[in-house]
């Protein structure tokens, strides 16, 4: 069994651990002494817990009984507990849990200590406090920047140090300290992550990982895909509604199906937890920024088996282009129910309305990007209304088998209208036409898996056997129409524009995606091994209502994953892994549907978590290849062939640390050597467009003893090529962010006043691609006042 003290992913208790297991075994310490955890207020005299791995059962019992429980991970490793039921006291409950294990629990002045049974019952074991980082849940709130565990890479609550893949975690504390609203901005300090490739475009998150776009194909919420229909219907996510954001680098099709080869971004929702603080906050800033938000929750019964939490955001604001709205209304209630010691259910819902720009591009006059916007404030907009409802369910049948099922249903309505220029400008007057894209979508995403924990000789297995299924039905109207002209020297942004009536597309589509997967996580002494395989099926049916025709297409693929990691005593963990991905492509060639692109990655790396610290350092080298890329047919220029190939080779360095209660740090450096290795388009051997070779980021937050604190950061992105032939280049740039905050004390304890600035120096930077140029977001300043309790 695991040598850490983390609980099964969905059976995590809803209260701050009363027996935080110290994860020295995570660093391979075989003979660590008894480990102590902080003592909270006891909640109950005894509790019922299911049987299972002894370390997990002890941790769960300590949570529910409200006791301090200390033990050496080596003492309990590999032992199985029958659990407890009907105990009348804490001592009786511990006796039931330790029955048949050869261990006993002894009460001391510091709590209960688990030790081997000895003939001398009068022997008193003196507990020794060891300074070490506690293990955490991958779903519960965290107090700082450091996250010891993550769930995205394995679909289990596993220490990052024991995972043979590169993972970055952005916690809610990082989001709050930098005061960001978008997921794109939240992950901007993570290694290997490029954001804002098309400048300011608030319609969706622009996130590239290791040189490959993940915006449309790798958008996940709570481990379930947020579907994308190929147009503009993309579920939006407010960063404030998230407990954390996990960025998994490299192919991940074995667990998640069709996905970008660069990796994926998994957004983890805030959910009920007694570890969560309540908070209300108001904000004001430049660009007419006005925002209110709250995060409240607690117990609905005396024992804390039923918990609730509600997160809300109301924002009325603009971007630095005055006519571009940044408006959001969001409400996300959730409820958790510990039905019995072996069964839990969490309900998650969200309703959101948002309105922003449909086309935020500014007019490009030759080699100069102007401040002129070509749209109309009343007509141009991306308006979306979405709601989702789902659940996460887990039942442990016994100490070996547990069933987990997650499901989410959603509806999304999108109106996307904008004005486009055409022809030449005469006497300063621009002719325009109107474009409208109107979409409706409903979707279902589910994931059902059996988790089996067992041993075969010296091998300890955590075997996932799963089936996931996604279904979404969408309809799209795409139309154009006339629009009034505009004087670029004296623009009128409030002219009447009719809804476009010239239909260019009217289609309905139904997409079904399903996959079965098998993944085994193996522990052998200090080795952590993993192997996985998956089979996927994708079916798409499209109805063209203009031509009254139908089309169907199907794709399938088998993907594999392997990983190996070794835990040293000193906290070092070298690893190696291999992973694959596939991603279906729209369109056809000579009447035949395009094949999916395929990704393959080899990665080696080194992780280091110094014993006794809340810090993690990661270095990784990767070689990532995407095959079946479309390129020109050398025999017929009107056709394409899928013989193209693109490679990314790189180095990533990342550090995340809570150096003290007052000082927090995140830093990263990325080097990527991208190359088009096969192409008939004349760009073989050149860099893919919009792929920087160097990126670096650093953020520090420090709080002085008397309440005043400061945060400061910098983000560097090197130059990129703007076309496939590498003849146009956009310059490199560095952006600075900063914040200052003051925490009140005394009668105002819990009140924080803060001022945050993004792009502090108001750096103007431009990125050009294929003749279009995009300007980055200008400086934003937000003042906030919050109260937490």
TrEMBL record:
Which GO cellular component terms are attached?
A: cell outer membrane
- Listed GO biological process terms: nickel cation transport; siderophore transport; zinc ion transport
| Polar residues compositional bias, start-end | 670-683
The GO terms describing molecular function are: siderophore uptake transmembrane transporter activity; signaling receptor activity
Topology in the lipid bilayer is annotated as: Multi-pass membrane protein
CDD domains with a match to the protein in the record: ligand_gated_channel
Tell me which UniProt keywords the record has, alphabetically: Cell outer membrane, Ion transport, Iron, Iron transport, Membrane, Nickel, Nickel transport, Receptor, Signal, TonB box, Transmembrane, Transmembrane beta strand, Transport, Zinc, Zinc transport
* Chain ranges of the Secretin/TonB short N-terminal domain: 67-117
The places in or outside the cell where this protein is found are: Cell outer membrane
Question: Per the record, which residues fall in region Disordered?
Answer: 670-690
Question: What job does this protein perform?
Answer: Transports the metallophore pseudopaline, which is involved in the acquisition of nickel and zinc, and thus enables bacterial growth inside the host, where metal access is limited. Is probably involved in the import of pseudopaline-metal complexes.
Q: Which family does it belong to?
A: Belongs to the TonB-dependent receptor family.
Q: What is this protein called?
A: Metal-pseudopaline receptor CntO
Which organism encodes this protein? Answer: Pseudomonas sihuiensis
């Amino acid at each position: 069994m695991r040598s850490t003290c983390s609980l099964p992913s969905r059976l995590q208790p809803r209260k701050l651990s009363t027996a935080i297991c110290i994860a020295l075994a995570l660093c391979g310490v075989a003979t660590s002494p008894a480990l102590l955890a902080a003592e909270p207020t006891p909640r109950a005299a005894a509790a019922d817990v299911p049987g299972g791995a002894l370390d997990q059962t002890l941790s769960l019992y300590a949570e529910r009984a409200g006791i301090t429980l200390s033990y050496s991970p080596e003492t309990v490793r590999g032992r199985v507990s029958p659990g407890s039921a009907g105990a009348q006291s804490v001592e009786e409950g511990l006796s039931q849990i330790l029955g048949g294990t050869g261990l006993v629990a002894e009460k001391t002045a510091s709590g209960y200590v688990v030790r081997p049974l000895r003939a001398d019952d009068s022997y008193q074991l003196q507990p020794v406090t060891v300074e070490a980082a506690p293990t955490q849940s991958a779903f519960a709130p965290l107090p700082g920047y450091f996250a010891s565990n993550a769930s995205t890479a394995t679909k289990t609550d596993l220490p990052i140090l024991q995972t043979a893949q590169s993972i970055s975690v952005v916690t809610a504390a990082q989001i709050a300290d930098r005061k960001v609203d978008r997921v794109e901005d939240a992950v901007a300090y993570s290694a290997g992550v490029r954001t804002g490739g098309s400048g300011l475009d608030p319609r969706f998150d622009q996130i590239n990982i290791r040189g490959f776009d993940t915006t449309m194909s790798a958008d996940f919420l709570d481990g379930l895909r947020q579907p994308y229909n190929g147009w503009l219907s993309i579920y939006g996510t407010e960063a404030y509604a998230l407990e954390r954001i996990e960025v998994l680098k490299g192919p991940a099709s074995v667990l998640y199906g069709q996905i970008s080869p660069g990796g994926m971004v998994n957004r983890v929702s805030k959910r009920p937890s007694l570890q969560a603080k309540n908070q209300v906050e108001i904000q004001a800033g430049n660009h007419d920024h006005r925002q209110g938000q709250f995060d409240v929750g607690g117990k609905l019964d005396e024992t804390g088996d039923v918990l609730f939490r509600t997160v809300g955001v109301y924002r009325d604001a603009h971007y630095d282009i005055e006519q571009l709205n940044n408006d959001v209304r969001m409400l996300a209630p959730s409820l958790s129910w510990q039905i019995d010691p072996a069964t839990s259910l969490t309900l998650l819902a969200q309703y959101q309305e948002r309105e922003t720009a449909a086309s935020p591009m500014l007019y490009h006059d030759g080699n100069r990007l102007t401040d002129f916007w070509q749209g109309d404030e009343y007509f141009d907009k991306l308006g979306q209304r979405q709601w989702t409802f789902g659940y996460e369910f887990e039942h442990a049948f016994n100490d070996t088998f547990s069933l987990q099922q997650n499901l989410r249903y959603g509806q999304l309505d999108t109106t996307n209208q904008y004005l486009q220029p055409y022809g030449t400008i005469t006497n300063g007057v621009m002719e325009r036409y109107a474009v409208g894209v109107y979409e409706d979508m409903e979707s279902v995403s589910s994931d059902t898996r059996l988790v089996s924990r067992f041993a075969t000789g010296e091998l300890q297995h955590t075997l996932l056997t799963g089936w996931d299924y996604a279904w979404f039905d969408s309809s799209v109207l795409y139309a154009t129409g006339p629009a009034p002209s505009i004087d670029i020297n004296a623009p009128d942004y409030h002219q009447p524009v009719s809804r476009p009536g010239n239909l260019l597309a009217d289609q309905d589509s139904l997409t079904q995606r399903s996959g079965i997967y098998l993944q085994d996580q193996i522990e052998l002494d200090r080795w952590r091994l993993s192997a996985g395989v998956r089979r996927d099926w994708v079916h798409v049916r499209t109805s063209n209502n203009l031509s009254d025709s139908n089309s169907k297409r199907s794709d399938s693929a088998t993907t594999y994953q392997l990983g190996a990691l070794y835990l040293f005593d000193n906290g070092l963990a070298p690893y190696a892994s291999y992973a694959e991905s596939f991603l279906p492509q729209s369109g056809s060639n000579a009447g035949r549907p395009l094949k999916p692109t395929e990704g393959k990655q080899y990665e080696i790396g080194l992780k280091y978590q110094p014993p006794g610290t809340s810090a993690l350092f990661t270095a990784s080298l990767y070689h990532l290849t995407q095959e079946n890329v479309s390129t020109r047919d050398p025999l017929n220029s009107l056709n394409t062939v899928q013989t193209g190939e693109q490679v990314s080779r790189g180095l990533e360095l990342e550090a995340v640390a809570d150096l003290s209660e007052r000082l927090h740090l995140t830093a990263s450096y990325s080097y990527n050597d991208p190359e088009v290795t096969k192409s008939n388009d004349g760009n073989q051997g050149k860099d893919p467009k919009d792929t920087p070779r160097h990126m670096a980021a650093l953020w520090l937050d420090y709080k002085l003893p008397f309440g005043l604190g400061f945060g400061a950061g910098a983000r560097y992105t090197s130059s990129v090529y703007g076309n496939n032939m590498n003849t146009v280049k956009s310059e490199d740039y560095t952006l600075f962010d900063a914040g200052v905050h003051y925490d009140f004390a005394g009668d105002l304890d819990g009140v924080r006043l803060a001022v945050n600035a993004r792009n502090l120096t108001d750096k103007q930077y431009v990125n050009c691609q294929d003749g279009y140029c995009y300007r980055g977001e200008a400086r934003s300043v937000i003042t906030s006042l919050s109260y937490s309790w």
